[in-house]
Amino acid sequence: MSKISKFFKGGGSAASKGRGGPSPQEALARLRETEEMLSKKQEYLETRIERELAAARQHGTKNKRAALQALKRKKRYEKQLSQIDGTLSTIEFQREALENSHTNTEVLKNMGYAAQAMKKVHENMDLNKIDDLMQDITEQQDVAQEISDAISNRAACGDEFDE
């Protein structure tokens, strides 16, 4: 079965059918396969257009009928090429949207994990205990500053004697 018929007939893994739809990775893989297939078809049509143009030039004025037929085929190929360009553009847009959605889902999931971790870290903390601890730290810093001031004033004892 060709890739296109698999794509349109829904050929895929049984696992993706069982859970209600393909995973983002499966969908992205299929979109990339389709992009590759359409790109190859574009290249093929471009070479066909060049061949038909060369045939039209070759026949030129000698065989107008053959030249016109070549130009008509060239026009048909150009129309197909234009349709493929539009389809490719749509597929690229869909792939990018799916990639962005998948990225957003992963980011959101990771943010949820981080929130749970923060909740676990903070569950043993009490705001009143933290406030008391911060007051104790401030008091001890004040005591340390007083001790430091007292020591530094004693070192300059020669200036403070009363006559």
Percent strand: under 5%
State the secondary-structure class: mainly alpha
Q: H/E order of the elements?
A: HHHHH
- Give the distance, in angstroms, between the N- and C-terminal Cα atoms: 113 Å
Number of helical regions:
5
CATH architecture of the domain at 24-113: Orthogonal Bundle
The helical percent reads over 70%
Principal-axes shape call = rod-shaped
Number of strands: 0
Largest sheet: none
Q: Write down the Rg.
A: 38 Å
At the first level of CATH, the class of the domain at 24-113 is: Mainly Alpha
Provide the low-confidence segments as ranges.
Answer: 11-17
For the residues shown, what is the average pLDDT? 85
Looking at CATH, which topology of the domain at 24-113 would you report? Helix Hairpins
CATH superfamily of the domain at 24-113: ESAT-6-like
Keywords:
about 160 residues, mainly alpha, Helix Hairpins, 5 helices, Snf7_fam, CHM4C protein, coiled coil, transport
